[in-house]
Write a structure and sequence with these properties.
- The complex is a heterodimer of chains A (about 550) and B (about 750).
- Chain A is about 60% helix and about 15% strand.
- Chain A has about 550 residues and is an alpha+beta fold.
- Chain A has three domains: about 80 residues, no CATH class; about 120 residues; about 200 residues, MetI-like fold, CATH 1.10.3720.10.
- In chain A, strands 6, 7, 8, 9, 10 and 11 form a six-stranded antiparallel β-sheet that branches. Chain A has a five-stranded antiparallel β-sheet with strand order 4-3-2-1-5.
- In chain A, a hairpin with a 4-residue loop joins strand 12 and strand 13.
- Chain A is flat, with a radius of gyration of 31 Å.
- Chain A starts with a helix and ends with a helix.
- The relative contact order of chain A is 0.09.
- With about 750 residues, chain B is of the alpha+beta class.
- Among the domains of chain B are: about 160 residues, no CATH class; about 230 residues, MetI-like fold (Orthogonal Bundle), CATH 1.10.3720.
- In chain B, about 40% of the residues lie in helices and about 25% in strands.
- In chain B, strands 6, 7, 8, 9 and 10 form a five-stranded antiparallel β-sheet that branches. Chain B has a four-stranded antiparallel β-sheet with strand order 1-29-28-27, with no helix packed on it.
- In chain B, strand 19 and strand 20 form a beta hairpin.
- In chain B, helix 4 packs antiparallel against helix 13.
- The longest helix of chain B has about 35 residues.
- Chain B is elongated.
- The chains are: A alpha+beta (about 550), B alpha+beta (about 750).
- At the A-B interface, helix 2, strand 2, helix 3, helix 8 and helix 9 of A face helix 2, helix 4, helix 5, helix 6 and helix 7 of B.
Amino acid sequence: MGKWFKSGSPWIWMTGGAVSISLIAVLGLLLLIAWRGLSYFWPADIYQWEVVDQQGKRSTIIGEIYDKEEVPTERLISAGHKFSEDPGELVTRYLIKTGNREFVGLDFRWVLETDILSRTTPKDVAKLERSKNGDFFGYPIAIIEDGKRLTLDDVEASFEEHIERAVALSDKATSLQKREIGAVNYELENLRLKERRFELDNALTDSRKLELQAERDKLQADYKVLEKDFFALREEAGRDAVIVRDMRGEEVTLKLDSILGVTYSNRLGIMGKLGHWFSGVGNFVSADPREANTEGGVFPAIFGTVFMVLLMAVIVTPFGVVAAIYLHEYAKKGPITKMIRIAVINLAGVPSIVYGVFGLGFFVYMLGGSIDQLFYPEALPAPTYGSPGVIWSALTLAILTLPVVIVSTEEGLSRIPSSVRQGSLALGATKAETLWRIIIPMASPAIMTGLILAVARAAGEVAPLMLVGVVKLAPTLPIDMNFPFVHLERKFMHLGFHIYDVGFQSPNVEAARPLVYATSFLLVSVIVSLNLTAIAVRNHLREKYRSLEH
Amino acid sequence: METQVIQPGSTATDLLMGKGSSKRAFKDKLTQFGVTMGGTMVFVALLLIFFYLLYVVKPIFDGADVTPVMNVELQDVTSPVLMVGSDEQNEILYRVSQDGGVSFYSALSANLVKQAHIDVPQDAEIVSSVASVPNEQRFAFGLSNGQVIIGGVNFAVTYPDNKRLITPSLRYPLGETPLQVSESGTPLYQLAFASASDKLSFAYHDAEGRWFLTRHNGEENMMTEEVEWEATTSQLNEAPAQVDQQLMTPDQRQLLLRSGNRLYVYDIRYVDEIALSQVIELERAKTKVTDVALLAGASSLLVSYDNGQIYQYFQVNGDKGRQYQEIRDFKNKAGVKRIAGEFYRKSFATVSESGELDLLYTTSERKLFTESFDLAHATQMSFSPRANALVVEAGNKLHLFAVENSHPEVSWSAMWSKVWYEGYPEPQYVWQSTSGSDDFEAKLSLMPLAFGTMKAALYAMLFATPLAIAGAVYTAYFMSPKVRAVVKPTIEIMEALPTVILGFLAGLWLAPLIEDHLPGIIMLLVLLPVSILLTALAWYKLPGRWKQRLPETYQELMLVPVICFVGWFAFYISPSIEVAFFGGDTRLFITNELGITFDQRNALVVGIAMGFAVIPTIFSIAEDAVFSVPRHLSNGSLALGATNWQTLTRVVLLTASPGIFSAVMMGLGRAVGETMIVLMATGNTAIMEWSVFEGMRTLAANIAVEMPESAIGSSHYRVLFLAAFVLFIFTFLFNTIAEVVRQRLRERYSSL
């Protein structure tokens, strides 16, 4: 033993343990996110419990098991809970999602194992996904079509049919509201700004006033027609209703235009659940968020993230590459160049929030404010560019990721053997030609690596964006059908901020948590795959030049 | 990076590019120019960050500026001045004299615009006059028949022909009929008053020198919407015989009577229970009190002396209840003649006998401005409503000064040392930037935030450094290349993981987990090393033929299942331990039995979560440093008979120590500036406690929380910029040290 200790072998094992712990942490973290994120879409069994409470009152609970934990009995007893028989040291406690928010007050409740009398999984119980007030659990009994109660043998089939109709009509209405009506509103706002512009220029003549008024009247007329269509569609969508028996045993009538889908989870086989899982994932990435972001999809956040990151890539690449080429190919080698290089590397370590502060002060307030003064005086005091927006976010993140691109490109440049350059110059090419035809093509994988790393970093940054452009809910995307189609001054949604916001600022954190896990998984998988790509490109590059050097 | 192309000589270029190649030469030059320009621009842009932050921060350290704008000769001066002032735009100056005359002067044309006089009843005359606190702009006159007239100034703003026109007038906020204060109709000498919409208080003495307090409680008549006043009067006991100055706080809770160098404080909250609550001795060696003034918010008293000293007093909770106490003092060169406080902030101006004007701020203890003007024998002084001008009456003239005083409340001492704020029992470090109320004073001490930053970074480093360095050593020195090729990138990928996800997991998953399984977590700290050692021992004792059967390459990963099992085991038995030792609830046990505050989102959670974020940074750089120690060094050591461990600790680690140091520096830099994790995993309360079970508020998180809501150009905004600047400098410094050390090391290796 003593000899074994003296050899230092135990300490080597300890260091090995450190590696193992780090590895477990990394993989465990990724697995945790993946598991929680992906299981969100799996249709869970719907249970019906008969429970008895402290007063001996029996009641029925219908819902999904959300979480479970072991609680020391003593803690429960000290909290005033009485047990009829000794339950042992620990008691299992279930967190049950009961939905039906507007009828039962709390849509989540804890139930002790000892209070449960029976648990069943009835086949006829369904989960109704709604556009308001969260999910609803209960037994659909009948359909009301246009005020008439239909007596049906097969409620399920008819139910789904009616829902599809209502959903299709609602979608039509929403698209009308967003596209056509949105366009009219946009035009009207433009007219108002135009008028104000004339007014500021002292050019608002009576003829112009009439002209503007005529246009406005035309748009108002359009609006009236569209509005009528819209309300007609909405009314048509709200024609039907469904009667559901809930866990209190009462029959509740739910309008169909608020129902998005129905799932008889307990009837589904593995294939059926798998199908549901896929459609759930599809919905998640393509749908808009609902109910203060705690339900629905994350499409605007994905769109915002991608758009902002692409914009940033367009800005950062030329500047980063030019700076690296200057530093490596043109600048004289000396203490100043060395200092600049160190400074650039260090900038990568400066906290991102500092860039956010800079972006807010310099880009948003100073640059944006000046742009507003010069080009958009008609909209003032409402800011156009002088408030946080997607362009300022992209610029801020471009500065933030500039060191990444510079360092990576320079590394690529330094890997190109000088013999290649000298060969090119010896053959009579100018330095510019060598640069364009030989060096940049050879360094392009390194540039790509830098760019990918920059994109990966930018996609995951949240702190600076909170200052320069990200919002909880953006009413419109930065790209739409209204001229000039791309609106760089608009605020946008971002996956990372979505996680922060829904996880920490939403009114119902418990209900939103699975959604946050799903969003996290989406973000992590994008970033990890980007990084793996970068690593693969870099390794490939190293191999390529290793052969070149010998 | 070391390769640098040798510039071809100009002759060679000329030779290669003969005639007709001028286009190529031009392109070459253009590229060179373009690249140089672009490169330089990028570096200038990066420099810009530094200078821009500095540019925004700088104004908070600038002093104030007071410049004379104009002065106007007073006309028809019949009586000494009671108060002076101006409107919000500083266009109209007014002067109220003690005989009830009010004159308005235009600051633009320097003319008398309007003159008015208080309506005094036929049978009475003015015997005393008093001005309200500055922000009310009211004044009151006590009459010989026991009545009081309260007056004020009004500035009506109209826009005829799109031009601003300000019309001044005299108004009577409580109606034109004088208010009967003394029932017996005695003259009201030395009047003091305070008014609110439903409550009025008057203090005065009669011809015999008896002091009285009259309180009017108003009730609005529902029908006529007129306020009906009901008066109560009581006499003050123990009043000094000779009173030099009388003040009443606007909240009508205190009456202050100064008699020579003594200040009597009366509690006048209830008229029938008036009590002398404190007598403040203002006597100081060979000096005389010249003035006592209320500071904005009326919680502080400023006492000035004829030798230039000014003392601030405010009430502090003590054994005898709330008592006035001397807080701090200011020293002016000459004796103070008049003090004027701002309407809302704690700035005040003083003017001396000889005409020296000083601008000071209480809590930041700053003297913002001092200069001598032609203001000898100044008789009255007042700030304008927006605190951007100062009106002084001196030598039969009204002087208007423009005041530029944007950030008086911020000073180096206010940010980094303890400050005694009004209402606090002692000097403290406080960060409290916003509040609902109007006369709130922002408390901008960066200390709690810097402390929080340090605390978070420290706990994170405590967690991360041993793990990361030990892991790096093993990976670089003992691990087989095949496994290393997988392990290293896996750990490094953590660095790319968005911190918002780590923060989310820390706040919503880890924090409740730790709270519920506290014994398990503590047990894990013990069980893990023990189980690793036991596994090592078991491996050592294992017969050779067993060892051979296990795959040698993956020997390192043998610990993974062991650690997984131990982790699961610790959590599994955690509730049982809780029941056995901590009465079933560890959290309650800690709070009740040990008396330690326990926050769910505490430093432990932050330490672990931020530790995870820092591990890959340290690991990656330290691993590189250890791995690039030349092999012949370690081989030599091993050949001389040293064991693996001896070689590692005495040769490899020693050589790589600068690299490991730089890795730790980089890690620290990251931990200091990390925002999202601390934002989400702590309660973000700016407390200064080292306890591992309490939270903190860091500089970075504070910026993220408060920046979007701070007004551009305000002191708060600039202090947040300063916080960002501090972070910038801090991390830049750490990283530079780390980088320089690393480059040195690289050079040394290449020479070995």
